[in-house]
Design a protein that fits this description.
6-stranded parallel sheet; binds NADP nicotinamide-adenine-dinucleotide phosphate; alpha/beta; two-stranded parallel ribbon; single chain; globular; Rossmann fold; 305 residues
Length: 305
């Protein structure tokens, strides 16, 4: 996937999706400039502006966010600054310079009361501060910039950072029994798959003269499961790699109270993404197994069990 000319600018450098974007770019010979804090800080100041002026990108991808869902409940100002105000400032710069913006949002903008997969136009009703701040970010981007693509993704995991898959591998190695919530349904989505899709979208957006594609899309892996189902798949893949695995037990959300409420159903319908961009992500089970293999290989190379 090659985009000639000016680079893609990525806001965020240390996050799961940002790191995966850097990897995809390296593998595909794509020019990409990624900056995180302090060089592009969505928390205020001029650094984002300075970074973008210096980079003069063809497309901007915002992969940075305040993602601590529970902490956000008591840290609302920071969550809204980074997830709403910052993206608004970013979108305003893009509007001034005529640069498209691809902004990442979340399944947690929905309340989970729908019984079937959510489509892009379904009413949003976030249950917590994180979801509300991300929804405010979507609105800020829409208000400032016509040439935007907002992609809502979900349950992100990968080899970098903190995520459910890595937590399961760690606690699975330490404990005899692991209990996981079985009444929240969604779609685990690999950072690498998101990154590959974002690059494909960026390529189409940058190459088309006047693409009728601006708007909001759902970008998740194929299929759906619960956190318990995700854990079962992780442990099955871990066992196939010869790793120690625990007994897995199903619990309910009520058994595992968290500061922030989560939607019971946040499965996202991806038909619009497929019809517009021709993009379909792999089945979540396939990428889960691939990530477990990758992490098992990494720790084997380091000599750790
Ligand atoms: N993780 C999920 O399960 C999930 C689910 C649905 C949607 N999403 C969305 O997907 C996107 C990518 O998520 P991710 O999982 O890759 O996130 P992540 O691994 O938690 O990384 C977040 C990144 O944002 C950066 N960041 C935080 N505050 C910043 C600021 N003030 N200025 C600039 N950068 C800042 C962090 O940098 P530092 O290292 O400096 O903190 C980090 O690089 C986000 O929009 C998120 O809302 C994620």
């Amino acid at each position: 996937m090659q985009i000639n000319g000016p680079p893609i600018a990525v806001i965020g450098a240390t996050g799961q999706v940002a790191r995966a974007l850097v990897r995809v770019a390296r593998e595909s010979g794509l020019t990409l400039a990624a900056a995180g804090r302090p060089d592009a800080d969505l928390g205020g100041g001029n650094s984002v502006h300075t970074f973008l002026e210096r980079t003069a990108p063809r497309v901007v991808i915002n992969a940075a966010a305040y993602t601590a869902v529970d902490k956000a409940e008591t840290d609302s100002d920071a969550a809204f600054q980074i997830n709403a105000h910052g993206p608004g400032v970013l979108a305003a710069w893009c509007a001034e310079r005529g640069v498209p913006l691809i902004h990442i949002s979340t399944d947690y903008v929905f309340d989970g009361s729908k019984r079937t997969p959510y489509v892009e136009d379904d009413a949003c009703n976030p249950l917590g501060v994180y979801g509300r701040s991300k929804l405010a970010g979507e609105d800020a981007v829409r208000a400032a910039l016509d040439r935007h693509i907002i992609v809502r993704t979900a349950w992100v995991y990968g080899p970098d950072g903190n995520n459910f898959l890595k937590t399961m591998l760690r606690v699975g190695a330490e404990r005899e029994v692991v209990r996981v919530v079985a009444d929240q349904t969604g779609t685990p989505t690999a950072a690498a798959d998101i990154a590959a899709a974002l690059v494909a979208i960026a390529s189409q957006v940058a190459q088309a003269q006047n693409p009728p594609v601006w708007g909001t899309y759902h970008l998740v892996a194929e299929g759906e499961t619960t956190w318990h189902g995700f854990a079962a798949e992780i442990f099955s893949a871990a066992a196939a790699q010869g790793l120690k695995t625990p007994k897995l037990e199903a619990i309910t959300t009520a058994d595992y109270p968290t500061p922030a409420a989560r939607p019971a159903n946040s499965v996202l319908d991806t038909t619009k993404l497929r019809k517009t961009f021709g993009i379909v992500l792999p089945a979540w089970q396939k990428s889960t197994a691939g990530c477990v293999r990758e992490l098992a290989g990494l720790s084997a190379n380091k000599g750790t069990p």
